[in-house]
Amino acid sequence: MHVLNLPPFDHKVIDRNGKPHIYDLIRKKYIMLTPEEWVRQHFIHLLINQYNYPKSLFAVETGLYYNKLAKRSDIMILNTNGLPHLLVECKSPDVAISQLTFAQIARYNFTLRPAFLAISNGLTHYCFSVQHGEIEYLNDFPAFERF
User: Fold this and answer.
1) CA angle (22, 42, 77) in 5-degree steps
2) d(CA 37, CA 99)
3) Lowest-confidence range among 54-58, 66-70, 82-86, 87-91?
4) Cβ(43)–Cβ(10) under 8 Å?
5) Backbone torsions φ then ψ of 14, nearest 5 degrees
6) Beta strand 116-120 with 84-90: parallel, antiparallel or unpaired?
7) DSSP strand E in the chain: where?
8) pTM (2 d.p.)
9) 3.90.1570.30, 3.40.800.20, 3.10.150.10, 3.30.1490.190: which CATH number matches 36-138?
10) What is the largest CA-CA distance in the chain?
């Protein structure tokens, strides 16, 4: 797997039928280890270990609908009222973050309306908020606060 621009974490990887699987502490099961999953797991641990988000507020690869199409959000953190707070779109390190990536998360934002949005391919990261139609790019990810 790629060395990422995210802090390392103590990960558990097992082999199942000749394919590596990584333990996801949110879903509490082993998930096939793809480059995108590698980024997602790093980002989950970053948000828990450095930004103090409780595991209980995470939703990973949850479904949503946009224009009657089924989509999946990579990481969504809910506030204590169960509403979207932070939505993270993860890409493989081999995938450049482009206008298409921003358009994808904008579609999710249209449906979910979280306070914050983030995009990462494990090497490059963006975080921003959208309030009243205005986009504000942030220098860092928001830390957990009792919302």
Assistant:
1) 105
2) 22
3) 66-70
4) no
5) -125, 165
6) parallel
7) 13-16, 19-24, 29-32, 58-66, 69-78, 84-90, 116-120, 125-131, 134-138
8) 0.89
9) 3.90.1570.30
10) 49
Closest CA to 72 of 90, 86, 54: 90
SS3 category, 12:
coil
Report the distance separating Cα 15 and Cα 22, nearest Å.
Answer: 9
Question: Residue 122 corresponds to which tokens in the numbers above?
Answer: 């494990």
Q: 126 in helix, strand or coil?
A: strand
Structure-block tokens of residue 37: 């999953």
Which amino acid appears at position 65 of this protein? Y
Render pLDDT for 71-120 as a digit per residue (tens, 0 to 9): 577 899 998 888 889 999 999 999 999 999 988 888 878 778 888 999 99
Alpha carbon distance 117, 31 (integer Å)? 24
How would DSSP label each residue in 16-30?
Answer: ETTEEEEEETTTTEE
- The residue behind tokens 């979910």 is 112
pLDDT at 21: 98
